[in-house]
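Annex B. Sample input.
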Amino acid sequence: MTTNSSWAALRNPVFGRLWIASVISGTCVAAHDNAATYMINTLAASPFLISLISTVASLPFFLFTLPAGALADSVNRKRLLCGINLWLAAAAVALAILGWLKVLNPCLILISVFFLGVGFAFNAPTWTSIVPQVVSDTELPSAGTLSGLQFNISGIIGPALGGLLVPLIGANFVFVANAACFLLVILVVLQWKQPTLPPKVSSQRFSQSFGTAIRYLRCAPELQTMLARNFLFSLFISAIPAVVPVIGLKVLHLNSSNLGLLFTSMGIGSMIGALSIAPWFRARFSSNALILSANLLIVLAYVLMGLVRQTELFLLVAALAGVGWTLSASELWVTAQRAMPDWVRGRMNATIIMVSQGAMVIGGLIWGSGVAIAGPSYTLLGAAVLFLISLLLGARLSINFTANLKEGVSNVLSMSVKSEGLAPTALTTDLLAAEC
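Annex B, continued. Sample output.
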């Protein structure tokens, strides 16, 4: 297994166990999402409500990832992950109980989606922050690809599994299975021995912690570029979760099983992109070229999705969209992780996630409104045209970084001494952590 292999990080036993647990849990989450989407379609045949699911799921990321990132930098990340997964399990069980009491309606399902989103919002910066602690720098590209691949595998198995289980055992049992998988993640996380102590930012107040991160961001043009690129990508990729389920249910008239196959096809394409195309591209082209090619593939997929009405062909197009999504998202993640030091990693990851999910919320509302006004086909065609224009306008936002961030870190720490009176010993610790 070479260092360029997409599987290289699995040689790390700690990462391997965490990754397998995340695959199992992600599969149950995907099955849960498929069951919830089909339940909303059954209870209220409104295309706007269906498209609203992705917006409600993204909103907690916009609201809570900054405090989540500060927590990831100031408390024990292992304990935090366990608490988050307990919250997620409780939210899934509560939805099942409401279903068994026969009081479920679209509003309650959307509220449940929001509560699950809160858990995932706190989980995301914590999880992404422990990955660089677990793997080496040479394993980081593989870990980034495998993290995306986890979603792809879950996206292949989960929707199909949910589509099969809903008519067989009911959506409520799917929700309970999801809760059980969150408990499995807790068991695996408890076995992880943290190699280093958490970054020493606990001496700062929450407001000071945010202030330091903001000043760091102002001195890090690479991360500013990453924020802009993530915003644009998320704004347009949000058309997939907002519009594709509507096409599947209202245009192609898919049942629960076939709706699962639609997302399974997308997951298969994502897996092909992660395992075969990403390593080949990384060995031959720059990050910028890889992301541009992936985004152009997404534009093509949007055009075809707006025109194709044969189910089998639509599944193939969905696979193309999955390839583009994974290639672009994984490369953006790897570049961002290499551009940030560990002492501020939780807050910077939270900032990127907040901006990305804020764009998903905005995009979900735009594309959902487009579905209600113009229909899903014209909405996707419009998204393709606007995405292409954004690629042309954003061509100058290169992510082929050559400068390092040490000078920016030094400036930030110096400003922190003057403005906040932080202890020199704490600053020395942070500087060493940043330089390492």
